[in-house]
Model the fold of this input.
Amino acid sequence: MIELRNVDFGYEDKLVLKNISFRIDQTESVVIMGPSGSGKSTILRLVLGLECPQRGEVLIDSQNISVMSEKEKRELRKSIGMVFQDGALFDSRTVGENVGYYLIEHTKMSWKEIEKKVVEMLGFVGLDADEIIDKLPELLSGGMQRRVAIGRALLSTNPRIMLYDEPTTGLDPQSTENVLALINKLTRERSISTIVVTHQIADALSIADRFIVIHEGEIAYDGDFVGLRECRDERVRAFLGPFRASMDLVAEKRFMNGV
Ligand SMILES: Nc1ncnc2c1ncn2[C@@H]1O[C@H](COP(=O)(O)OP(=O)(O)OP(=O)(O)O)[C@@H](O)[C@H]1O
Ligand SMILES: [Mg+2]
Done:
């Protein structure tokens, strides 16, 4: 469903991704981790077709993004929901206008019809529509804004693929929990392929069963939790070092649950 084959990518003369290959099947959830600047967000930009690789191929449903016209890429992006690193809501539009953005811009539906869908979607992402639909995003907490952003991505694209860039960064534990539960619910209830980029390894562990660690533009690890924990690659060990305690905790929990 999503496949990168031997991808090299650089901005200007700086090579950012080197020989990246992986495949993510339908309904699979994968977490991409790695130090700041290692190329994680760039991978998402490639999957969205916002950038094209200098070498190798990016395939979505076996279609090569590089050879698509802008129009075809726009079509493709309709099936991909993206929650950007900075949340990126429109400040001057209400929560309702943000969530209904795509329907307002690209369909002839009346506001009344759109509003109905927006209210439904706000409920789905665990927010009280009556309370917030007419508010500006700045009046909401960070966690609520992130959920509005997820709602907007869902309503705009009815996606088969969801991409989240650092969905929990900067959130308090309760909001983090809410956003993670929402991501899990989505992955479970709709057959969506999911890529989550995150620094927060404790969160990563609750989202996915497969982990890709990027180090300076290369894949240092791709596999399951047990393999990750035992990985002997120095780059992976250095990255995971500070998180050993939380990994041990998760391992214990998994063991108790028989996973
Ligand atoms: N538009 C751009 N032009 C030039 N260089 C860029 C651009 N965007 C990113 N880079 C560089 O590409 C490299 C990878 O950036 P990327 O944003 O993919 O990293 P990241 O892993 O997402 O980091 P973070 O965890 O801090 O978000 C960095 O060295 C960055 O400086
Ligand atoms: Mg990033």
